[in-house]
């Protein structure tokens, strides 16, 4: 697109770049790769394409920020583009889509007949565009993407109808729905890349990262071993993995979750695919790593012009990534539009319900106590703040937990992992303390140490007057009547061979508290309380959805009528609407039964919604602790401020750029046996708000 002596090269649908002359040669060579387009100037005196000297800027759709260009266009000040001008500039109707899904129907054969996974779904994906497909579990998002890769057949699915047209460039267009598997092997990983949700299962544990990165390059691109290794190193640096040379020789289990996800992204981008499918790539990641991964994908998309099909249930991520949004519900597309249209003017009731269920950071500003979320359909239900009491239930002092690292011929302890270091806090009856931080900061270990599921090295834990650390095995078993745990993955924490009623009743059986009709009635009451039909009591875990399984886990935790429940990432893997329902349920139970929660999470918006107090953890220590309102509205520690900055906001007009994110690499928590940790010293900000002044490594 040319204006006088300026050329705007379109990279995607959110950014246009004006480039200086020294980049002309490189840009002309990369035009096809960047999916850019340039049209010769209509001015005959312009002499073809011209570039404004010494000018390189990014222009967002809503504003034109280069004064020189604005002046050339006839304005003395930067020009703000109106909606119609912006739409004209970003119009891609003249471009053929890279992928076109038309009337897709996918069925799964069962003994009771076919089950429809996707029914009559149609949408396009254009060059350089990110299309986010959103919806809850079972809506058909992943089935649609697996159909494009023709991987759905390996999971028992069958493409019963529809076309999956894919533009292969010079090779022309192909209908993937009818393509032979031999042809698909040349397309998968080469022309269509895929980032799977769980990197640990997507990577082969017995091969090094370098081996897995070079395999596709040698197969699809015919590279020699040395060429493939050089390209693999380049990819590792492109996704900004530190010490890339070292990482190539490591195995997946030796990398953190964020690094493994970056490796999977590098593998997907290795052969420079025309289409990249990302299936929930950030669901299980910490907020800081998630922010970096999203910014990384957006940058790589701009640099390579790759089209992206992004599958997620997180509407805040959609706001950060999408150009267009496709909303799916029960196998059907219910709404499609630009990201601004979907967020600012949703039409379908399901889209409205999804957006209403999103916890938004800042919603609790000015409020002292947690409140249940106001969900669609429950607008008339009064919102009652959960105040709790000022009576202390749990006191933790100087809790320290370390794990030995052995080595040498005799497997002696040569170092220790300092998982939890000098942790102190209290929880009042009927109130919630949330521990937040990245993976590896010690949140879960702290929760397990309080229950003595792992044995702490030192410290005090006092629950309702009982010294938990001094109890023997019999006393500890009795004390656990008052403290229970809800685990992150309900499918892993429930026995697949036991009926649900038996699993909820098992803790009561173990303690011999009830039996017969009394026990049956109590289990029925628990199912009623967590809003599950009593017919589910005869079911098994695999017959329930993720949200339903988590409700069973909550019912089991409530069975013994505990005083304290430790909730370890209990809602992190749930769909947004199910998450909102489970959070409301937990808060209602807290108010009704005067429960206390230690709520472990990495989701800052959820933590803001449910917490009375918040402790921010980094490298085993609490770096900031205080009332939720004080910590969120007046964060003092640099790490807390970085966490707040990383939270994706469910507003497409408030996107975060990669340059805005500057997280420091986490130092190793492993120290030699001789290492003596400094005690934690805090500065009192006021009103119970404390900030760590001891060096935490951040």
Q: Which helices and strands appear, and what pairs or packs with what?
A:
Layout: E1 2-3, E2 6-10, E3 16-18, H1 24-34, E4 57-59, H2 67-72, H3 83-90, E5 99-110, E6 113-125, E7 130-134, H4 141-148, E8 157-167, E9 173-175, H5 181-187, E10 192-195, H6 199-202, H7 209-220, H8 225-238, H9 244-248, H10 257-269, E11 275-279, H11 287-304, E12 307-312, H12 315-321, E13 324-329, E14 332-338, H13 339-344, H14 349-356, E15 392-407, E16 412-428, E17 432-436, H15 443-451, E18 458-463, E19 466-467, H16 473-479, E20 483-486, H17 490-493, H18 500-511, H19 517-529, H20 546-558, E21 564-568, H21 576-593, E22 596-601, H22 604-610, E23 613-618, E24 621-627, H23 628-633, H24 638-646, E25 670-672, E26 682-686, E27 689-692
Parallel strand pairs: 7-12, 7-13, 10-11, 11-12, 17-22, 17-23, 20-21, 21-22
Antiparallel strand pairs: 1-2, 2-3, 3-4, 5-6, 5-8, 8-9, 13-14, 15-16, 15-18, 16-25, 18-19, 23-24, 24-27, 26-27
Helix pairs in contact: 7-8, 8-10, 10-11, 18-19, 18-20, 19-20, 20-21
What does this structure look like?
- With 698 residues, this protein is α/β, with parallel strands linked by helices.
- It has 24 helices and 27 strands.
- The strands form five sheets. An eight-stranded mixed beta sheet has the order 20-21-22-17-23-24-27-26, sandwiched between helices. Strands 10-11-12-7-13-14 form a six-stranded mixed beta sheet, sandwiched between helices.
- Strand 15 and strand 16 form a beta hairpin.
- Helix 7 (209-220) packs across helix 8, helix 18 runs parallel beside helix 20 (546-558) and helix 20 runs parallel beside helix 21.
- It is globular and about 75 Å long.
- Residues 1-90 have low confidence and may be disordered.
């Amino acid at each position: 697109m040319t204006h006088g002596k300026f050329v705007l090269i379109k990279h995607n649908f959110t950014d246009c770049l004006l480039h200086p002359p020294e980049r002309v040669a490189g840009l002309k060579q990369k035009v096809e790769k960047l999916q850019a387009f340039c049209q010769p100037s209509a001015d005959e005196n312009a002499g073809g394409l011209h570039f404004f000297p010494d000018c390189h800027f990014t222009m967002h759709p809503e504003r034109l920020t280069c004064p020189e260009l604005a002046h050339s266009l006839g304005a003395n000040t930067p020009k703000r583009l109106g909606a119609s001008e912006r739409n004209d500039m970003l119009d891609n109707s003249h471009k053929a889509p890279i992928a076109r899904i038309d009337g897709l129907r996918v069925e799964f054969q069962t003994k009771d007949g076919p089950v429809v996974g996707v029914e009559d779904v149609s949408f396009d994906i254009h060059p350089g565009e990110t299309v986010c497909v959103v919806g809850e579990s079972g809506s058909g998002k992943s089935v649609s993407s697996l159909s494009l890769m023709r991987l759905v057949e390996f999971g028992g699915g069958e493409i019963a109808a529809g076309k999956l047209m894919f533009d292969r460039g010079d090779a022309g267009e192909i209908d993937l729905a009818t393509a032979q598997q031999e042809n698909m092997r040349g397309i998968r990983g080469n022309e269509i890349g895929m980032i799977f949700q769980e990197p640990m299962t997507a990577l082969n544990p017995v091969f090094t990262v370098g081996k897995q990165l070079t395999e596709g390059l040698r197969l699809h691109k015919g590279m020699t071993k040395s060429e493939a290794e050089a390209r693999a190193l380049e990819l590792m640096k492109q996704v900004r993995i530190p010490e890339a040379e070292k990482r190539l020789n490591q195995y997946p289990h030796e990398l953190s979750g964020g690094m493994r996800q970056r490796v999977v992204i590098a593998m997907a981008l290795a052969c420079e695919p025309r289409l990249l499918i990302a299936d929930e790539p950030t669901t299980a990641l910490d907020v800081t790593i998630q922010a970096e991964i999203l910014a990384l994908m957006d940058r790589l998309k701009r640099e390579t012009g790759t089209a992206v099909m992004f599958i997620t249930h997180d509407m805040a991520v959609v706001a950060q990534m999408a150009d267009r949004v496709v909303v799916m519900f029960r196998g059907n597309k219910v709404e499609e539009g630009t990201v601004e249209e979907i967020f600012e003017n949703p039409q379908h009731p399901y889209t409205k319900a999804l957006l209403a269920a999103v916890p938004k950071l800042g919603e609790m500003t000015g409020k002292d106590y947690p409140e249940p979320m106001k969900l669609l359909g429950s607008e008339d239900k009064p919102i009652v703040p959960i105040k709790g009491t000022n009576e202390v239930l749990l006191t933790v002092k100087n809790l320290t937990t370390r794990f030995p690292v052995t080595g040498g011929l005799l497997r002696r302890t040569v170092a220790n992992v300092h998982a939890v270091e000098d942790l102190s806090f209290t929880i009042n009856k009927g109130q919630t303390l949330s521990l937040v931080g990245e993976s590896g900061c010690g949140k879960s270990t702290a929760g397990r140490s309080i229950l003595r599921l792992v044995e702490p090295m030192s410290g005090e834990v006092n629950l309702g007057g009982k010294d938990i650390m001094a109890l023997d095995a019999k006393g500890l078993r009795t004390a656990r009547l008052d403290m229970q745990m809800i685990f992150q993955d309900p499918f892993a924490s429930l026995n697949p061979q036991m009926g649900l009623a038996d699993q909820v009743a098992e803790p009561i059986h173990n303690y011999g508290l009830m039996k017969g009709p009394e026990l049956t009635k109590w289990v029925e009451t628990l199912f009623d309380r967590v809003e599950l039909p009593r017919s589910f009591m005869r079911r098994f875990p695999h017959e329930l959805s993720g949200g339903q399984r988590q409700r069973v886990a909550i019912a089991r935790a409530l069975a013994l009528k505990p005083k304290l429940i430790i909730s370890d990432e209990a809602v992190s893997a749930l769909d947004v609407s199910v998450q909102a329902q489970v959070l409301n349920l937990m808060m209602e139970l807290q108010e009704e039964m005067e429960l206390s929660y230690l709520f472990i999470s990495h989701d800052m918006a959820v933590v803001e919604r449910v917490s009375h107090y918040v402790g921010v953890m980094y490298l085993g220590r609490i770096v900031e602790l205080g009332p939720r309102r004080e910590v969120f509205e007046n964060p003092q520690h640099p790490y807390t401020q970085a966490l707040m900055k990383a939270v994706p906001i469910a507003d497409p007009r408030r996107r975060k750029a990669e340059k805005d994110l500057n997280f420091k690499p986490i130092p190793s928590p492993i120290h030699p046996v001789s290492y003596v940790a400094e005690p934690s010293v805090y500065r009192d900000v006021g009103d119970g708000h404390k900030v760590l002044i001891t060096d935490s490594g951040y």
